[in-house]
Write a structure and sequence with these properties.
Elements lengths: L1 E6 L2 E4 L4 E9 L4 E9 L6 E7 L4 E3 L7 E6 L4 E6 L8 E9 L4 E4 L3 E6 L1
Parallel strand pairs: 2-11
Antiparallel strand pairs: 1-3, 3-8, 4-5, 4-9, 5-6, 7-8, 9-10, 9-11
Length: about 120
């Protein structure tokens, strides 16, 4: 059984920073991709950033230059450093793990990020 433990969300003023962490544990074989998605009220879940095991990254245009994704393969942990936060970044942020030969997806429970103006 896979477990994803997310942490680091909270309330911050516009222009501030937060760092999200997502640690994976359990029966995980061959992690392919780890990433972050977010969902604001009334909106669809959208990609924020993801990173492959080899370190290749992809970012949503709205966060490029402000957010940085990184991972520690030894700890099966992915991080999202969020700088210059804006009110429109307010959302529930979900960690996504893609692993195994079948590229199975597993979602975290989500962590709330609120940016006040």
């Amino acid at each position: 059984q896979v477990q994803l433990v997310e942490s680091g969300g909270g309330l911050v003023q516009a222009g501030g920073s937060l760092r999200l962490s997502c640690a994976a544990s359990g029966r995980i074989i061959s992690i392919k991709v780890m990433g972050w998605y977010r969902q604001a009220p009334g909106k669809q879940r959208e990609l924020v950033a993801h990173i492959t095991r080899g370190g290749s990254t992809n970012y949503a245009d709205s966060v490029k230059g402000r957010f940085t994704i990184s991972r520690d393969n030894a700890k099966n942990t992915v991080y999202l450093q969020m700088n210059s936060l804006k009110p429109e970044d307010t959302a529930v942020y979900y960690c996504l793990l893609t692993y195994g030969s079948t590229w199975s997806d597993y979602w975290g429970q989500g962590t709330q990020v609120t940016v006040s103006s």
